[in-house]
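Changelog note: in this version the structure field was regenerated for every chain. One regenerated record is shown below for reference.
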Amino acid sequence: MEKIIKSIWGDVFAVIAGILFTLSFSPFDFSFLVFFSLAFLKISLTELSVKRATLRGFLFGLGLFGLGVSWVFVSMVVNEQSGFVLPVMMTMLYCSFWAIFPALSAYLYVKIRHDNYLDWIVFACVWMFVEYIRGEWILGGFPWLQVAYSQLDTPISGYVPVLGVYGTGLIVTMICAVLADVLLHKQCIGRYFWGVISLVSVGALLQTVQWTTIAGDSLTVSLIQGNIAQKDKWAIENRNTTLKQYYDDSAANWQSDLIIWPETAIPAYFEDVKDDYLLPLEREAQAHNTDIITSLPYKDKSGKLFNSVLVLGKNRAMYKKIHLLPFGEYLPWQPVSGYLLGLMNVRLGKFSSGEVNQSLLTAAGHQFVTSICYEDAFGEQSIRYVEQARFLVNVTNDGWFDGSIEPYQHMQIARMRALEAGRYLLRVTNTGISAIVSEKGKIVNQAPIKQRVTITSEIEPMSGMTPYARLGDKPVILLISIILISSLVRRYYLKR
């Protein structure tokens, strides 16, 4: 077995293990595979040189991201003008870039590890430290396929309102590392077994805790999924048809307290449709005692562009997107990225970021936390001012990725925010997946993908704070940092 792991077959199996890692997430949802995947990675790094271990981690990452973010190819060809060869090359480059981070995890683990009973916690902390760097810092953060999301429908999700995505991920990776040690050494199986059972049992117990409470009467909300193809969305000849469609679908639901449209549902700047469309729509909504949350691009007097959410009704106000999408709303690595995307005829907006400390919007008599598109992938952004909020709203457009696994992954990520905050999440997208998610992270009502449909449900305004909403990620990241620094110091003195 040891010879196989050290041979080229170990490299092949590393790619397969990376693929299995991705299969633990939506839409596949084989949650248990993440444990065997990371356990194999830890075992396969045993007694490898630093260079070989780094390569092994990179190959694991190629399997993970090669399947997990293959949807980036779809976003490049969705306009049917990009050809085939260049998008394939760009997708391979993109997946290879993110594969560097599992390689970094393998490198750091081999440099820091100890041949003692604490080796498992070093592996877990290294993996989560690199996940944090990737998820929060690189290109503004890319928190896709973080290990905790794979356990959203298992007892381990009970830790989420307490520890967030990184703390819960630490629990998962510790279990993976323990499993690897059991398989590798076959020692202390009983102690490890009861330790894992205890962790899972505590998670199940935490699931029964109601961290937040109902704060007011139920609200009737309607989410309108327009299902307008991305290649047709911005065509000027389709604008009036699009505006009429959203008006008609809203008029059919005036009985709701709140109606929500998806990201950039209005394919025009605010000033272009303000007088002829938005103000008449707002007056009609007020007459029916309904508020509408919509989204459209906004240009200020200085010419800056913003991706925005607009509330129409009793309390008109606007939120401007803070966390912009790299390669979607702004272009890093200029001029190379702009040149390559230009070759593929991919035209992107040049947006500015909104102010960080924007006031909460109000609709249906309650304040709420707003996020646009992949802003819902950042836990600490969603809990900013959540104490004053009664629910969460996310508007997005996954039409760029129709037919891929991305909408399912994104929905899984969004559910985590509801669970962390202890608030209902109202998530509406252009082509799917639109859904109403409870404060426990469970889907209450979900729209079928790639259909024009409106879903309506009752939600409860919630108050109170989960432990994670109070403390955020800092305590967990501090603990991980202390453990890693202690391990480095210990290794230094052992060498001396």
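Spot check on this record: Residues 85-112 form the longest helix (28 residues). The first strand starts at residue 213 and ends at 214.
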